[in-house]
Amino acid sequence: MAQQFYVSPEQMMKDRADFARKGIARGRSVVVVSFAAGIALVAENPSPTLHKIGEIYDRIAFAAVGKYNEFESLRQAGVRYADVRGYSYDRADVTARGLASVYAQSLGTVFTAEQKPFEVELAVAEVGATQAEDHIFRLTFDGSITDEPGFLGMGGQADLVQQRLADAWRPGADLQAALAWAVDALRAPREANGSGQEAVDPLGPASLEVAVLERDVREVRGIHRAFRRLAASDVERILHSVGKG
Amino acid sequence: MDSHHRGGIPSLDAAGASSSFLDFVTATNPALLPFGRSLPAGQLPATPHGTTIVALTFAGGVLMAGDRRATMGTMIANRHIEKVFPADRYSVLGIAGTAGIAIDIVRLFQVELEHYEKIEGTQLSLEGKANRLGAMIRANLPMALQGLSVVPLFAGVETGGSEGRLYSYDVTGGRYAELEHHSVGSGSVFARGALKKLWRPDLDQDSAVAVAVEALVDASDDDSATGGPDLVRKLWPVVYVVTDDDGATRVPPETLAPVVQAIVDRRTAEGREA
């Protein structure tokens, strides 16, 4: 019989956390930015089909970094939770706060009870009637939950991305400005590492996944689903118009 | 539907291999379903019933219209009820039969389509949507045997196509593709007679709206359970148009009012008795 070694609970939690952090830092970053007409979700993602950003419910979106199979199963579970809740009560009763606390519960349980923790970090965003009523929640691998003020950067070298957003972000911006901030923030780690050798812009619209939650979707489009993906051509047009203006 | 997965590959079960909301709720919380119970024997009190729905194709899409009446025996249970609904962006459904169950089946079907779209990242094919609705009606068969039947009419356009298609159902969930036009509900016999004379190939959208409204006027003329347009309360039928460009859109009351008025004026001028 193999001999059992004693590992202190502190050491075990630290090992698990380090393991999860390493996995998350390997990937590329995702940015969520609130602006005047909604919330923009921008991911660096060369694949057009394996999404990091998804629709959960009428006014709620999901973004994730880390292992695809893990966050995809969390996304599907979120869609099921929201649809069952909306069907049994009412569409208005599905909130980001409820969803985020369910995610926090299951991430926390997996972190302590399973073989290995999930190597993922999630964002749950809900667009409100005004920008002050927007909610952006950050959920980390251990089930911690934080309410972020207006913007969020996660995955990869998240500190650099988050810092760049904190410097730029102001309330009341339009979509052009929000996308420009997001792309600039996603570029921050490359600039810090590359130190000028990457003169060619590697972050074109083709390697971006962009979606928005539109604030006035009911009034403007007459539908209840605020989530809309932007095609690469739209993203290029919007980013190009910033350069001109 | 996904029963063959069970006991198959466990990882697929765990990941939720089914993209169907109906399957998920059936497995986890069947009491939520409109038909998720078995009724004990007994006499059911009168319940509101929805009546006539008409649907027809036109150049560029498909249209569905329903009157506004629900009846309970000889009583008018509701004169504002809406029995035609958008199922998703490219399809609509109308329901006849027990209103309470039918409206819940509509909600379930709407969630089913949206759920699939969110999980899979793509829309179901029109045929796939029609089959899912058939599965729900079949699941309601035990209720139908107790007198709580629901008979829908489904119409839509295939994404990227412009040809409208119609599907009718029976209480066993049988699904039948219909050509040109169709109607269900108590006034459907009279509506269908009207449609046979009024429908033409390549109708434009405005004439299609007029044809549907006139068919409902004819149905309400002869069927007491079908409500006619109410000029006093300004109640017009619920009319939805589905085209590939605009998706499912409701025809606004401002458009319907002159259409109804024109039919009423013409019939008043003709002064026919029968």
TrEMBL record, chain A:
<comment type="subunit">
    <text>The 20S proteasome core is composed of 14 alpha and 14 beta subunits that assemble into four stacked heptameric rings, resulting in a barrel-shaped structure. The two inner rings, each composed of seven catalytic beta subunits, are sandwiched by two outer rings, each composed of seven alpha subunits. The catalytic chamber with the active sites is on the inside of the barrel. Has a gated structure, the ends of the cylinder being occluded by the N-termini of the alpha-subunits. Is capped by the proteasome-associated ATPase, ARC.</text>
</comment>
<comment type="similarity">
    <text>Belongs to the peptidase T1A family.</text>
</comment>
<keyword id="KW-0963">Cytoplasm</keyword>
<dbReference type="GO" id="GO:0005737">
    <property type="term" value="C:cytoplasm"/>
</dbReference>
<dbReference type="GO" id="GO:0004298">
    <property type="term" value="F:threonine-type endopeptidase activity"/>
</dbReference>
<dbReference type="GO" id="GO:0010498">
    <property type="term" value="P:proteasomal protein catabolic process"/>
</dbReference>
<comment type="pathway">
    <text>Protein degradation; proteasomal Pup-dependent pathway.</text>
</comment>
<dbReference type="InterPro" id="IPR029055">
    <property type="entry name" value="Ntn_hydrolases_N"/>
</dbReference>
<dbReference type="InterPro" id="IPR022296">
    <property type="entry name" value="Proteasome_asu_bac"/>
</dbReference>
<comment type="function">
    <text>Component of the proteasome core, a large protease complex with broad specificity involved in protein degradation.</text>
</comment>
<dbReference type="InterPro" id="IPR001353">
    <property type="entry name" value="Proteasome_sua/b"/>
</dbReference>
<dbReference type="Pfam" id="PF00227">
    <property type="entry name" value="Proteasome"/>
</dbReference>
<keyword id="KW-0378">Hydrolase</keyword>
<keyword id="KW-0647">Proteasome</keyword>
<dbReference type="GO" id="GO:0019941">
    <property type="term" value="P:modification-dependent protein catabolic process"/>
</dbReference>
<dbReference type="GO" id="GO:0019773">
    <property type="term" value="C:proteasome core complex, alpha-subunit complex"/>
</dbReference>
<protein>
    <recommendedName>
        <fullName>Proteasome subunit alpha</fullName>
    </recommendedName>
</protein>
<dbReference type="InterPro" id="IPR023332">
    <property type="entry name" value="Proteasome_alpha-type"/>
</dbReference>
TrEMBL record, chain B:
<dbReference type="InterPro" id="IPR029055">
    <property type="entry name" value="Ntn_hydrolases_N"/>
</dbReference>
<dbReference type="InterPro" id="IPR001353">
    <property type="entry name" value="Proteasome_sua/b"/>
</dbReference>
<comment type="pathway">
    <text>Protein degradation; proteasomal Pup-dependent pathway.</text>
</comment>
<keyword id="KW-0378">Hydrolase</keyword>
<keyword id="KW-0888">Threonine protease</keyword>
<feature type="propeptide" description="Removed in mature form; by autocatalysis">
    <location>
        <begin position="1"/>
        <end position="50"/>
    </location>
</feature>
<feature type="active site" description="Nucleophile">
    <location>
        <position position="51"/>
    </location>
</feature>
<dbReference type="GO" id="GO:0019774">
    <property type="term" value="C:proteasome core complex, beta-subunit complex"/>
</dbReference>
<keyword id="KW-0865">Zymogen</keyword>
<dbReference type="GO" id="GO:0004298">
    <property type="term" value="F:threonine-type endopeptidase activity"/>
</dbReference>
<protein>
    <recommendedName>
        <fullName>Proteasome subunit beta</fullName>
        <ecNumber>3.4.25.1</ecNumber>
    </recommendedName>
</protein>
<dbReference type="GO" id="GO:0010498">
    <property type="term" value="P:proteasomal protein catabolic process"/>
</dbReference>
<comment type="similarity">
    <text>Belongs to the peptidase T1B family.</text>
</comment>
<dbReference type="Pfam" id="PF00227">
    <property type="entry name" value="Proteasome"/>
</dbReference>
<dbReference type="InterPro" id="IPR023333">
    <property type="entry name" value="Proteasome_suB-type"/>
</dbReference>
<keyword id="KW-0068">Autocatalytic cleavage</keyword>
<keyword id="KW-0647">Proteasome</keyword>
<dbReference type="GO" id="GO:0019941">
    <property type="term" value="P:modification-dependent protein catabolic process"/>
</dbReference>
<keyword id="KW-0963">Cytoplasm</keyword>
<comment type="function">
    <text>Component of the proteasome core, a large protease complex with broad specificity involved in protein degradation.</text>
</comment>
<dbReference type="InterPro" id="IPR022483">
    <property type="entry name" value="PSB_actinobac"/>
</dbReference>
<comment type="subunit">
    <text>The 20S proteasome core is composed of 14 alpha and 14 beta subunits that assemble into four stacked heptameric rings, resulting in a barrel-shaped structure. The two inner rings, each composed of seven catalytic beta subunits, are sandwiched by two outer rings, each composed of seven alpha subunits. The catalytic chamber with the active sites is on the inside of the barrel. Has a gated structure, the ends of the cylinder being occluded by the N-termini of the alpha-subunits. Is capped by the proteasome-associated ATPase, ARC.</text>
</comment>
